[in-house]
Specification:
It is globular and about 55 Å long. It has a domain of 120 residues: Jelly Rolls. 47% of the residues lie in helices and 22% in strands. By secondary structure, the chain is of the alpha+beta class. It is built from 8 helices and 8 strands; from the N terminus they run ααββββββαββααααα. A hairpin with a 5-residue loop joins strand 4 and strand 5. The strands form 2 sheets. A 4-stranded antiparallel sheet has the order 1-8-3-6. It holds the Pfam family cNMP_binding. This is CRP-like cAMP-binding protein.
Length: 194
């Protein structure tokens, strides 16, 4: 994919929140680092310090944890045109608990945390961009927690379908089952009944 297509995608994403001048766009795009991930390759592993935010150009990332019994718990997905990071680690500079893995060959643009701080100084509009992204993320996580505590699995699946409409038929069923908090077997039976 030519570099101008990824830049157009990320600039369009940012443009939903602020209008940038050509000079501001150049400052921002000069800070971005492209990275290719192979299917099942980890971008961040539990215990790492997350030093970048990632914007997905193509492919899909998943963020998950592994409990003491070895079970994976999917917290989020980032398809094309979404941002992802281990926010705890990124903001505290401490080792994180999140694994971020490519579910397929994936292309991302990384924004280093150190560059993000410089970006706020050079182009203060980006504080608004990342505040809005953080607020949306917080709202989504809170709603997801409430859903997991109070909704039956079928309704959690319905909310998943609304949140990630492009992934419904794209992801392996076991990934969706993990996200909504059920076993793959239960998920398969539930889908047949819907």
């Amino acid at each position: 994919m030519p570099m101008d297509e990824p830049l157009a995608l990320i600039l369009n994403n940012v443009g939903k929140h602020v209008n940038l001048t050509p000079a501001e766009k150049n400052i921002f795009t000069a800070m971005l680092q492209p990275k290719q991930l192979k299917r099942k390759q980890h971008w961040v592993a539990s215990g790492d310090i997350c030093r970048h935010s990632a914007f997905v150009i193509s492919g899909c990332l998943r963020g998950y944890t592994v409990d003491n019994n070895g079970y994976e718990h999917v917290l989020s997905f980032a398809p094309r045109d979404w941002w992802m990071a281990d926010m705890y680690s990124l903001l505290t500079h401490q080792p994180g608990n999140l694994n971020i893995e490519a579910l397929e060959d994936t292309e991302i643009l990384m924004l280093p945390k150190s560059s993000q701080e410089d970006l706020y100084q050079q182009v203060p509009k980006f504080e608004r961009v990342f505040r809005i992204l953080a607020e949306k993320s917080l709202v989504a996580y809170q709603q997801r927690l409430i859903d997991n505590l109070s909704l039956p699995a079928a309704e959690r699946y319905d909310r998943f379908c609304k949140r990630y409409p492009t992934l419904i038929y794209h992801l392996p069923q076991k990934q969706i089952a993990s996200y909504i908090g059920v076993t793959p077997e239960f998920f398969s039976k539930m889908r047949k009944g819907l």
